[in-house]
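Q: Got one fold?
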Amino acid sequence: MTDSTKDLDEIWPGWKEAVNMSASQLTSWLDTEESRSVGQKESDAGESVGHRSGKRIIEILGTKRDDLTADDVSHMHKVVGYVHRHLAQEPSKEDIESSRWRYSLMNWGHDPLK
Protein backbone atom coordinates (compact mmCIF):
# COMPACT_ATOMS: atom_id res chain seq x y z
CA MET A 1 0.00 0.00 0.00
CA THR A 2 1.47 3.35 -1.02
CA ASP A 3 1.38 6.40 1.21
CA SER A 4 -1.11 7.98 -1.20
CA THR A 5 -3.43 4.97 -0.92
CA LYS A 6 -3.14 5.02 2.87
CA ASP A 7 -3.93 8.75 2.93
CA LEU A 8 -6.93 8.19 0.66
CA ASP A 9 -8.24 5.42 2.90
CA GLU A 10 -7.90 7.73 5.90
CA ILE A 11 -9.62 10.75 4.34
CA TRP A 12 -12.33 8.91 2.37
CA PRO A 13 -15.00 8.69 5.15
CA GLY A 14 -14.52 12.36 6.08
CA TRP A 15 -14.64 13.37 2.42
CA LYS A 16 -17.91 11.51 1.84
CA GLU A 17 -19.40 13.25 4.90
CA ALA A 18 -18.05 16.72 4.13
CA VAL A 19 -18.92 16.81 0.42
CA ASN A 20 -22.67 16.21 0.42
CA MET A 21 -23.41 17.90 -2.92
CA SER A 22 -23.22 16.04 -6.22
CA ALA A 23 -21.02 17.27 -9.05
CA SER A 24 -24.10 18.52 -10.93
CA GLN A 25 -25.47 20.32 -7.86
CA LEU A 26 -22.11 21.96 -7.24
CA THR A 27 -21.74 22.93 -10.91
CA SER A 28 -25.15 24.63 -10.87
CA TRP A 29 -24.36 26.36 -7.58
CA LEU A 30 -21.00 27.71 -8.79
CA ASP A 31 -22.80 29.38 -11.70
CA THR A 32 -24.85 31.58 -9.35
CA GLU A 33 -24.18 35.15 -8.28
CA GLU A 34 -24.55 34.04 -4.64
CA SER A 35 -21.67 31.62 -5.08
CA ARG A 36 -19.44 34.30 -6.58
CA SER A 37 -20.39 36.82 -3.88
CA VAL A 38 -18.66 35.08 -0.96
CA GLY A 39 -15.18 34.06 0.06
CA GLN A 40 -11.69 35.44 0.11
CA LYS A 41 -10.87 36.76 -3.35
CA GLU A 42 -7.55 36.17 -5.03
CA SER A 43 -5.74 39.42 -5.75
CA ASP A 44 -5.93 39.59 -9.55
CA ALA A 45 -8.07 36.62 -10.51
CA GLY A 46 -11.29 37.92 -8.94
CA GLU A 47 -12.30 34.36 -8.05
CA SER A 48 -12.53 33.32 -4.42
CA VAL A 49 -10.48 30.49 -2.98
CA GLY A 50 -13.69 28.57 -2.21
CA HIS A 51 -15.11 29.04 -5.71
CA ARG A 52 -11.91 27.71 -7.24
CA SER A 53 -11.94 24.85 -4.73
CA GLY A 54 -15.49 23.99 -5.83
CA LYS A 55 -14.27 23.54 -9.39
CA ARG A 56 -11.52 21.24 -8.13
CA ILE A 57 -14.05 19.27 -6.07
CA ILE A 58 -16.13 18.71 -9.22
CA GLU A 59 -13.03 17.27 -10.92
CA ILE A 60 -12.38 14.96 -7.96
CA LEU A 61 -16.02 13.81 -7.88
CA GLY A 62 -15.70 12.92 -11.56
CA THR A 63 -12.58 10.83 -11.00
CA LYS A 64 -12.62 7.12 -10.15
CA ARG A 65 -11.29 6.49 -6.65
CA ASP A 66 -8.43 4.34 -8.00
CA ASP A 67 -7.40 7.16 -10.35
CA LEU A 68 -7.10 9.88 -7.68
CA THR A 69 -3.64 11.44 -7.44
CA ALA A 70 -1.68 12.55 -4.40
CA ASP A 71 -2.67 16.15 -5.28
CA ASP A 72 -6.34 15.10 -5.31
CA VAL A 73 -5.96 13.49 -1.88
CA SER A 74 -4.22 16.61 -0.58
CA HIS A 75 -7.13 18.76 -1.76
CA MET A 76 -9.59 16.35 -0.20
CA HIS A 77 -7.84 16.87 3.15
CA LYS A 78 -8.06 20.63 2.67
CA VAL A 79 -11.80 20.42 1.91
CA VAL A 80 -12.59 18.23 4.92
CA GLY A 81 -10.63 20.54 7.21
CA TYR A 82 -12.33 23.65 5.86
CA VAL A 83 -15.84 22.20 6.11
CA HIS A 84 -15.29 21.01 9.70
CA ARG A 85 -13.84 24.38 10.81
CA HIS A 86 -16.56 26.36 9.06
CA LEU A 87 -19.40 24.20 10.43
CA ALA A 88 -18.18 25.03 13.93
CA GLN A 89 -18.76 28.73 13.17
CA GLU A 90 -22.50 28.36 12.49
CA PRO A 91 -24.26 31.69 13.05
CA SER A 92 -26.81 31.67 15.84
CA LYS A 93 -29.38 34.28 14.80
CA GLU A 94 -28.96 34.53 11.07
CA ASP A 95 -31.29 33.10 8.44
CA ILE A 96 -29.13 30.09 7.54
CA GLU A 97 -30.72 29.46 4.14
CA SER A 98 -29.52 32.76 2.64
CA SER A 99 -26.46 33.28 4.82
CA ARG A 100 -22.95 33.97 3.59
CA TRP A 101 -21.90 31.16 5.94
CA ARG A 102 -23.99 28.62 4.00
CA TYR A 103 -22.97 30.04 0.63
CA SER A 104 -19.31 29.70 1.53
CA LEU A 105 -19.77 26.10 2.66
CA MET A 106 -21.61 25.30 -0.56
CA ASN A 107 -18.63 26.57 -2.59
CA TRP A 108 -16.68 23.84 -0.79
CA GLY A 109 -19.28 21.17 -1.68
CA HIS A 110 -21.22 21.10 1.60
CA ASP A 111 -24.83 22.23 1.99
CA PRO A 112 -25.56 22.42 5.74
CA LEU A 113 -29.31 22.26 5.04
CA LYS A 114 -29.06 18.74 3.56
About this structure: The helical segments are 3-18, 23-30, 33-36, 49-61, 70-87, 100-107. The mean pLDDT is 91. The two ends are 35 Å apart (CA to CA).
